[in-house]
UniProtKB/TrEMBL annotation:
<dbReference type="GO" id="GO:0032259">
    <property type="term" value="P:methylation"/>
</dbReference>
<dbReference type="InterPro" id="IPR029063">
    <property type="entry name" value="SAM-dependent_MTases_sf"/>
</dbReference>
<keyword id="KW-0489">Methyltransferase</keyword>
<protein>
    <submittedName>
        <fullName>Class I SAM-dependent methyltransferase</fullName>
    </submittedName>
</protein>
<dbReference type="GO" id="GO:0008168">
    <property type="term" value="F:methyltransferase activity"/>
</dbReference>
<feature type="domain" description="Methyltransferase type 11">
    <location>
        <begin position="40"/>
        <end position="123"/>
    </location>
</feature>
<dbReference type="Pfam" id="PF08241">
    <property type="entry name" value="Methyltransf_11"/>
</dbReference>
<keyword id="KW-0949">S-adenosyl-L-methionine</keyword>
<dbReference type="InterPro" id="IPR013216">
    <property type="entry name" value="Methyltransf_11"/>
</dbReference>
<keyword id="KW-0808">Transferase</keyword>
Amino acid sequence: MDELYSLENAQKFNWSSVNGNLNPERVSHLEKYLIGKKILDAGCGGGAYVEFLAQKGLEITGVDKYTQFLQLAKEEGRIGTYVQEDITSLPFPDKAFECTYCFDVLEHVNDMLAIQELARVTTKRLIIAVPKEDEIMNKFNLTFLHYQDKTHLRNYTESSLRKLLSGIDCCNIRIFPELAIPTRNLVRQVIQLDVDSFTKKYMKSSLAKIKLKQIVGFGASKSQSLYQEFYDFLTNELLDKASYQDIPTGLVAVVDLASL
């Protein structure tokens, strides 16, 4: 399994801590929920988020098990303190950090041991992000790249994540979905209709006739390009007025510890 934790695999599955392309949603979580000044990034990868927070003046320590990721952080000159260690056995004393965040790591390890260690070394808050169990696309025998990562041992439902977190001493747990698939864009990509048959079918409607006259002009020739414009109008009308179900691929838990 360890051989799968490579820079190549990290790039393939877009691990933002490695490639440096910080996910805006994850940045928002940090800006909204981080508390305190002494912070732990548990499973820091290549250190991109460590550097982001260090630049804000926080006392940030990144921990990762794998040499190649920490070496990348060094080569890229990403500021911050880095420690090579497994997050299921951290080398820090109790309550060493005020806040710990752990993005996309628990699904790779013994999550019960890891969450207990994170709680042990933290005084105020944990911010946990994990992949959400796919409950929608599986119905159609489809999957997304996110779920093909063979380093994942498990995905989570809100119930299973809450059960995991119930094993630590905390006073409040907030769980919400994240990283939703842009279903509107997905639908636009997969819909394929024949322009001629589509437009001619809807020519009988009064709205269609009015719009086609607006596009073509009275007495103008109905060319293929104009039918294409009319087709675009109708599909936009249909798709823009439709409602789309969010398909989140992740869950975030903000855990206030009992010592807060």
